Please model this.
Amino acid sequence: MERKDIEKLVRERIEAELGRTGRREYIVAANWKMNMSAKSVRRFIGRLRETEIPAHLKAVIFPPFPYLHILQDMLRYDRITYGGQDVAKEESGAYTGEVSAAMLADCGCTYALIGHSERRSYYGDTPRITAGKAAAALDKGLTPVICIGESLEERRAGRYRDVLKGQLDAVYAGIGERMTGCVVAYEPVWAIGTGVIPGLSDIEETHGYIHGLLGTMAGNEGKTVPVLYGGSVKPDNIRDIASVRHVGGFLIGGASLDIESYTDILGLLSEG
Ligand code: PGA
Model:
């Protein structure tokens, strides 16, 4: 057995052991985007390792690719997991600039972010490409975190349900029942980096809708897929959003760059 397989096994055992907490569980994912430096990554992870993270919270870090190896070194045998912010849909070969799922797995990743709205809007990640990336990640044992979300115009026009369904359907067409091995992140595009979040009743309604779609796609198992909320999550609003039905965690951009605010969020979610 290779070292990385042993590490994965140890981590899974620890998680299985700790998972029996009876408390509502949340994934608290940090999407660092194109920020941080080697020095700030070391400082952040060093501090995070000293933080007590209760068993019902799963901290997941998405650093830029060049810093994955720092996390691999610092988080060996740790319960904190991490992943790539993107992944190639191709397996290997002449694809300059791309990073494959096998490479992410090699770096000890557990997750891969797929179809973030910035990838979709700036880098041409179409629904088909997004589906291909999800399949590539699953093939190498990574958990895809599939990002979906509507624009403000689509929300205002009342078309958000169709948009979200279209985005999920495209992935489902590529991976089928393996959808149950994914995480979904609902991120309204208009809430990303703006400081504006939807009303809690809108989050509840939309998460309920996504939950229902997953159930239709993959039955009861589909309903176990965690649906994260993302877009302007901050220590100020975390407890309110956490109280919303069907919210299985968070995908946090800006507020995850600073160790104080990230650990504040973990602390606020730890309180009863
Ligand atoms: P934000 O970003 O928390 O800065 O709004 C969230 C995201 O894009 O994942």
Observations:
- The longest helix spans residues 200-222.
- Strands lie at 26-31, 57-62, 81-84, 111-114, 143-148, 183-186, 227-230, 249-252.
- The two ends are 41 Å apart (CA to CA).
- The chain has a mean pLDDT of 94.
